[in-house]
Design goal:
Length: about 900
């Protein structure tokens, strides 16, 4: 077979030919539209082992997957890793297939094929399965250098001219009029045919691929019959589909001896009419329960009130149809289901405001088959609580909805409300009832004592005009004020009439005194504020000098890089960015201070470190951290924006790192839905090791961090490691291997040799990093409480356990599941080398980084070898965590068929 033949063969739909279905060896109904004398009716028992869902989409008989689970080959569904498909294995099903009530099938298909040199004409055809009586389709065609012809008569449709550098996004916009793309709408036919003819200029197209993609595709399905639908001949046929008791036949339009019909459950019955005993009686009390079966139900979704009979939880609504879903409290997102969003519920008027989330030309809202809307983005809809009249509903006290005293029942019979019925015709509905509070009362008539009296005197000021208002239960009455009194509109009471003598004099004196007092008060406030500003200004200047501000200014001005990257902030600017250091802005507390979240005037989000109160001798340590960070520019080291010295406690301004620390990710998994994978741990360890290696040997001045720990390794939005907290770090000349200093660090991470000799060197950071590697492997803190309540050192525990059992049994369960035994042994061996008691026996951070990098590359190659299989063209491709992981394998070339 040639290349062209192979491509054209890939475009054709295959036809599924399946023999008589069986269940446990029993022959089921022969539904091939031929007369058969042996017919076994499908039932719930015979369908019990049949799948009912695929990829989140549900379906029911007559559709099915597997032999014996569907009515006929046309109703067969195919489930694979790509999704749920019709019997042609090319038309994907997007939504659930609901057989009661029956709904159209929402589907999708796409075709890609390559342009071949020397071939000028390409054909694409699609034919719906025979159960489909009609479809509506919007097809998007994308290509370059072709004329498109549509239909059997090859009528010209559109021209695909070549676009610029890239094709437009045809999935989100209507691309008619855009180069390289056109849209066509097809209705009422079961077949689509397209032909592509290359332009006659002879040039080979710039883009060598043509795509045909459907949008908003809906297939109307029915059962095919050899007799007129719903006739006596059809009901006596062995292939009659409406096999359930209490089911009935719905006729479909007849077209040239092609007969279609549907099945449904009769009134007061529900279920699947296509299987034996599928329609079962449903008691009216099931449809409406006037008392929620659960107490303490949530009644709000953000700013939206959700009153009964609606509910957000199981057993909190009066009926299944009144169950709503609060998907996001912060944004008040309340959904009826995955397609419709509710913005307001008016209980007293019986109205619900909805908005269509997915724009399909299908009925989008239904409560008990009563109220519909079609092709709307938003709508205010009336609803009822049952399909009974008030007289009928009141006969069943246990299911009657108007339970509040002072409530009344209203029949839904206003002909001004137009709704959409199942026959796809606009009609007026007048069945059903709802409840309303009586005149003079307001509230929720669906709950006990929900209708409360309206105090008209307060809610409608001036309702009695110049008379005194007196509220009564359900009403009010007006009376005149007694003699020598008058009605006061401000207090809405009758007040005594005062004499008017000396009124003008009193007004003048009162105004004069008030103005004088106001001027004195304003003057005093102005003077006090000016005095406070002067005191604060002098105090800030003193703090700036005490905090070595002049020294830092000289340092920044002498270092060109620090001058460009470091800024001295004013206290006023940082107070504004943190809402005056509000306690709700606190991100965390460390050994050297407290960290706040702030938003600068240029909208940058920063972390502001407010150091604990320190001695004057420790100011140099603070300046030391600023000096170190101002000279460092590394992707895995936290970025310093600047500092503020106008307070008694100096402030540092860092780049905000949103995902907390490695310590929190390892030891606070119960508080988060996110868990670090083994690949995450390897990458973070490699990045942190690279940052420390840069500090030791690649920076302009060697830096010994002196406080390496998992809580000082932060994780940004992409979970990239950022080494932070240089308050204890020391600058070291390049020609000097160590410095003598007082011991400082975090218990459990401190190098024992440094603790004994007080000589700080680069191997001290290596020891601390070894403890971080143990945390990654064992997911335990450096000093942890064992099962017996005793405190243990993680390193001592690690060495002790290694003597009695293999390393694979010591590490955390997540590590055992994801990492290979060799990877676990390699990282454990590296950690053990870093934790040698003698510093000269430990590796350098450069060696640690290289070892971790090689381990990651070996893991990447092994993963890609598994993905490669027999395909030698697959190569590794690394992408960021934002795309779902650390790395993946893709073929270097791939062809769509």
């Amino acid at each position: 077979m040639g290349v062209l033949d192979a491509l054209l063969a890939g475009l054709l739909f295959h036809a599924a030919c399946v023999g008589a279905p069986t269940v446990n060896g029993t022959v089921l109904a022969n539904h091939d539209n031929s007369n058969s004398s042996t017919t076994i009716v499908p039932s719930a028992a015979s369908m019990a082992s049949c799948p009912k869902s695929c990829g989140g989409k549900t379906f029911d008989y007559p559709f099915g997957i597997g032999v014996g689970c569907f009515r006929s080959p046309e109703f067969e569904l195919i489930c694979n890793t790509g999704g749920l498909y019709l019997s042609d294995n090319d038309t994907e099903v997007l939504l659930d297939i609901n057989v009661s009530p029956q709904q159209d099938i929402s589907t999708f298909f796409r075709r890609y094929f390559h342009v071949i040199s020397g071939v000028d004409v390409y054909n694409v055809s699609w034919k719906a399965p025979s159960i489909i009586r009609s479809f509506s389709l919007e097809v998007v065609i994308q290509g370059c250098g072709f004329d498109v012809y549509l239909g059997d008569d090859s009528a010209y449709s559109c021209t695909l001219t070549c676009p610029g550098e890239t094709f437009p996004d045809v999935t989100s916009v209507v691309c008619n009029g855009i180069r390289g793309c056109c849209v066509k709408h097809l209705y009422g036919t079961n077949t689509m045919q397209l032909q592509f003819v290359r332009h006659t200029n002879g040039s080979f197209p710039k883009y060598r691929e043509i795509s045909v993609i459907s949008r908003s595709m809906f297939l109307g399905w029915s059962v095919h019959a050899d007799h007129p639908p719903c006739s006596d001949e059809l009901r006596n046929d062995n292939n009659y589909a409406c096999v359930s008791n209490n089911s009935s036949c719905d006729a479909e339009p007849i077209d040239e001896n092609i007969y279609w019909y549907r099945c449904r459950c009769e009134s007061e019955y529900a279920g699947n009419p296509y299987i034996l005993d599928g329609c079962s009686h449903v008691d009216s009390a099931y449809y409406y329960n006037p008392v929620p079966r659960k107490v303490n139900c949530s009644r709000s979704c953000g700013d939206i009130n959700v009153p009964f009979p609606f509910g957000l939880e199981e057993s909190c609504s009066a009926r299944t149809q009144f169950r709503l879903n609060c998907t996001d409290i912060a944004t008040s997102t309340l959904q009826l289901d995955r397609n419709y969003q509710v913005s307001h519920i008016d209980i007293e008027r019986g109205i619900i405001d909805i908005k269509l989330l997915v724009f399909y030309d299908i009925p989008i809202f239904e409560l008990d088959h009563r109220v519909y809307s079609s092709f709307m983005t938003s709508e205010s809809m009336h609803w009822t609580i049952d399909n009974l009249s008030c007289l009928q509903a009141q006969k069943n006290v246990s299911a009657y909805g108007c339970v509040s005293v002072n409530s009344m029942c209203l029949d839904f019979n206003d002909s001004t409300y137009k709704v959409y019925d199942v026959q796809e015709q606009w009609k007026y509905k007048n069945n059903g009832y709802r409840c309303q509070c009586m005149h003079g009362f307001h509230g929720n008539p669906y709950v006990p004592n929900g209708c409360q009296d309206i105090d008209e005197c307060k809610t409608t000021p001036g309702i009695c005009k110049e008379l005194l208002c007196n509220n009564t239960v359900g009403s009010y009455h007006c009376t005149e004020c007694p003699d020598k009194t008058k009605y006061d509109t401000a207090t809405m009471q009758c007040i005594k009439v005062k004499r008017q003598r000396g009124l003008l004099l009193g007004i003048v004196m009162g105004l004069s005194a008030g103005i004088a007092i106001l001027l004195l008060t304003l003057s005093a406030i102005f003077l006090v504020r000016k005095w406070r500003r002067d005191v604060q200004k002098r105090l800030r200047k003193k703090h700036f000098q005490d905090n070595q501000g002049l020294l830092l200014e000289q340092l920044i001005s002498s270092e060109e890089n620090a001058k460009d990257m470091t800024k001295i902030f004013s206290l006023e600017e940082l107070e504004k960015s943190t809402n005056n250091f509000d306690h709700t802005r606190i991100l965390g507390r460390g050994g050297h201070g407290m960290v706040y979240k702030g938003i600068l005037s240029d909208q940058r989000v920063v972390a502001i470190k407010k150091s604990v109160i320190i001695q004057q001798s420790e100011i140099k340590q603070f300046i030391n951290e600023v000096a170190i960070l101002s000279q460092i520019n590394h992707r895995n080291i936290v970025k310093l924006f600047g500092c503020c010295l106008e307070t008694e406690v100096p402030l540092l301004v860092y780049d905000f790192i949103p995902n907390g620390s490695l310590f929190q990710a390892l030891h606070s998994a119960s508080d988060s839905n996110f868990t670090l994978s083994w690949d995450d741990c390897m990458r973070i360890a490699c990045e942190a090791a690279g940052a420390l290696c840069y500090l030791h040997s690649a920076a302009a001045v060697s830096v010994f961090h002196r406080d390496v720990k998992s809580s000082n390794i932060l994780l940004d939005a992409n979970y990239t490691a950022k080494v932070s907290d240089f308050g204890a770090s020391r600058l070291v000349p390049i020609d000097q291997t160590h410095i003598d200093t007082k011991v400082q660090g975090t218990f459990g991470y401190i190098d024992p040799e440094y603790y004994q000799t007080t000589q700080l060197n680069e191997k001290s950071d290596v020891y601390s990093f070894g403890m971080v590697l143990l945390e990654l492997l064992l997911r335990k803190e450096p000093i942890f409480t064992d099962e017996f309540g005793s405190k243990q050192n993680l390193f001592n525990y690690f060495l002790s356990e290694l003597k009695s059992r293999p390393i694979t049994e010591i590490v955390d369960a997540h590590i055992r599941e994801e990492a290979t035994e060799q990877e676990i042994k390699s990282v454990a061996s590296l950690a053990e080398m870093c934790l040698k008691l003698r510093g000269e026996e430990r590796p350098t951070m450069k060696q640690v980084e290289i070892t971790l990098h090689n381990l990651r590359m070996e893991r990447l190659n092994s993963l890609c070898q598994v993905a490669r299989g027999n395909n030698q063209e697959i190569q590794p491709f690394i992408y960021s965590r934002a795309n779902g992981g650390d790395y993946c394998c893709y073929p270097c070339t791939h062809v769509h068929v």
